[in-house]
Write a structure and sequence with these properties.
three-stranded antiparallel β-sheet, single chain, four-stranded antiparallel β-sheet, about 110 residues, mainly beta
């Protein structure tokens, strides 16, 4: 836990976006204000697992994970965080950048 009893999160979402209903897709992240090009929108974290472990995960955790290399996946925590709901787009205006912080890979969405 962080100071004041807040749980530590594995991801971060800009204050200029929010998680909300996305119709048939379930939930998604939407901008609530203009976000300048090159600004971090979200940072996705979790733990890394191989393909065998990935296949043992439930459908929800597989859906809210990201392949980061051949046979390696960044998997979200068991809870849900807004960054878990960044959705695929056929006309993307955001991209992922890999960061290494204290030896751990993080994915920063710009």
């Amino acid at each position: 836990l962080l100071p004041r009893g807040r749980p530590m999160q594995h991801s971060w979402l800009t204050p200029n976006a929010e998680l909300r209903e996305a119709g048939a897709k379930g939930r998604g992240v939407f901008a609530t204000a203009a976000i300048a090009a090159g600004t971090s929108v979200s940072v996705f974290g979790g733990y890394v697992c191989d393909l065998q472990e990935f296949h043992r995960l439930d459908e929800h955790r597989q859906t809210h994970s990201m392949q980061i290399d051949d046979g390696l996946f960044m998997v979200c925590d068991e809870g849900e965080e807004p960054a878990d709901f960044l959705n695929h787009s056929c006309d993307p205006n955001c991209y992922a950048k890999i960061l290494t912080i204290d030896g751990k890979k993080k994915y920063d969405w710009h």
